[in-house]
Here is the input.
Amino acid sequence: MNKHIIFDNYDPDDYREGAIESLLENCNYSAAADIPESEIYDEINFMMGIYWDDERRMMENYFDGKMLLVCGNVGRWNGNFAAGKIIDYSELWKCWADCDYISIYDEGGHFYIKASHHDGTNHFEVKILTEKGAEIYERWENYCSRWEDLNEREVHERLWKNAKYSHIPHYAREVFGCKTR
Here is the structure.
């Protein structure tokens, strides 16, 4: 399966070569060895910030107006715990709130988020609710559904498993034209 990295800051050294090239082109350095490490890391942080802003805008443009079903687990100091939520894009950041490292990627049309902090790592997959799925969820929230006896996790599972109610985003294909095989 094709994996398309949307954003990843787990290894800042992945940006090192680009940072050095940028500093050589835009500053008065004649060789990479002349550039102080602190300046290289400042440039890496600057580049990652620009990259993150660009990717965040593209995700917002794609997901805006869609209801998202986010399922996975949250890593905490006392173990990993199942997690799930139905949100709009404006709340997606909560998946990586208080995290130092984030990896967002599309693999075969599936949209994944991995986010680490000092207590553990959160792992999530994101699906888009269909109009029918959003309608069923709204009725369930208002106790007007044949699913009203189900708890939230059970509702998420039913929405997740049925293509009439949710689907994978195919983000890389739709935004970047990547093939998802």
About this structure: The chain has a mean pLDDT of 94. The first strand starts at residue 3 and ends at 8. The beta strands are 3-8, 67-76, 79-88, 101-107, 110-117, 120-129, 166-167.
